[in-house]
Sequence to fold (483 residues):
Amino acid sequence: MPSVSLTKSTAFRPPSPTPLAQPLGAIALLRTLRDNPLEAWTQAFFEQPIVTMRLPFGAVATVSDPAAIRRVLLDNAANYRKDTLQRRIVSAGLAHGLLMAEADQWRFQRRTLAPLFARKAVMGFAPFMLRAAEEMTARWAAADADEAIDVAAEVTRLTLEVLRQTIFSDGLGRDTEDFQEAMRCYFDTIGQIDPFDLINLPDMIPRFTRWKVRPALRFFESAVDDIIARRRRRLAEAPQAVQRDILTLLLEAHDVETGHGLTEAEIKSNIITFIAAGHETTANALAWSLYLLSQSPEWSERVAAEARRELAPGRPRDGVADRLIETRAVIEEAIRLYPPLAAISREAIAADELADETIAAGTTIVIAPYVLHRHRRLWDEPDLFDPTRFLPPARETIDRYGYLPFGAGPRICIGATFALQEATLVLATVMRRLRLRLAPGFAVWPLQRVTLRPRGGLPMHITARKPERSAPQPERDARLHAR
Ligand code: HEM
Fold:
């Protein structure tokens, strides 16, 4: 598709499984879906507009044709609801939140929550993001260069911290370490696909993967209850003194059409949803970007130069993420190659036709950004890292429904602006001051859980860049020219 050719001299091929020539047998397929679904794709998926197959839980159609995807996610979206497997994987804690709501409940919540993630609100969160990035960068700069730091774990901690500050800016009212540990345990668990889910055993049969963490789940949910109750009391006593963070916005949110607020269960579920949907996804976007930059001296220097210019002392901070154009192109390319949500799924309510194939009611539709973003029909040299795809003029040639890291249509990610702003600010802050080198001998490999992460983390050696020369000062330069 894209007619603009890439700068292949500097592009390189980062690690990914080679698509299989033939489909796996039933047992090997189940095992691979459990261990790393990314390794189950065959060549046909990267070449055909649609591939249909029968799995133990029913018919599945993987769609990679932009027009058909548009039909599922936009034009005929009412015919495609979130599917049963997805419902089982996410825990009860998310059931009343935006991610899992359907029909009227979803419409009401989306309308009500949209202002929380609108551009203006998100720009107001930039100082939290920059501060968290600066703290992490200073910690890395102080570390011994001989000691490898797990950059993937570090950025996961950072994205949790940003959400904690933007959601509950006045603290947790509990021990932060306990809360973080419970939160980590909670989100690790809901991210696991239980083999019982895959073979479609009824819900009444307990899932052992979820049993062992029940105490952590209860601790986390009750901590969120307490935080909400405390904030309600403060809002009733002295509303002017309360921070305008996401929690306050949630408690005050009103539907523009009906004037109704959110119920207690919806508020709690949405807090858990924002943390669940927002922390590992953004962390993976950052981890992959840092890894790719560690392999590309050219792009590492380009991003560092842009960051030195735009984050120089005295430069305005307002809207700075919008001026970090090359940094953003690296992130967009990183989430093309390694989309944090590697697959989106839906269930057809009634029969339909997609890419010239008849789809029976009940079919599971898979739209896999991982496959779509490397599809032979849609991309030039799809497996190569080349951020110039996302700079003008190449950018304009990308099909809207051929690049979907945040989904599309009415259920497009509500946090996309938040995530891109955060990732851009953090990447620029790190690259401005530091150089990253992958630990020698470590083999990077993408592993698909609910999100697509580097298997075994990302051990890196970090060194400081040379101090910057002071930035040109327009006033002084003008005086010099006038002489
Ligand atoms: C790089 C980071 C992120 C990626 C790649 C990502 C990706 C996605 C995708 C693909 C969807 C659509 C799922 C579907 O159609 O089935 C989605 C939905 C959603 N995301 Fe994100 N997301 C990211 C960050 C965030 C953040 C930071 C938040 C909130 C703080 C968030 C909250 C949500 C919510 C609530 C939904 C459901 C929207 C709805 O159904 O109306 N996401 N995300």
In short: The chain has a mean pLDDT of 87. The chain has 20 helices and twelve strands. Residues 73 and 409 are 5 Å apart (CA to CA).
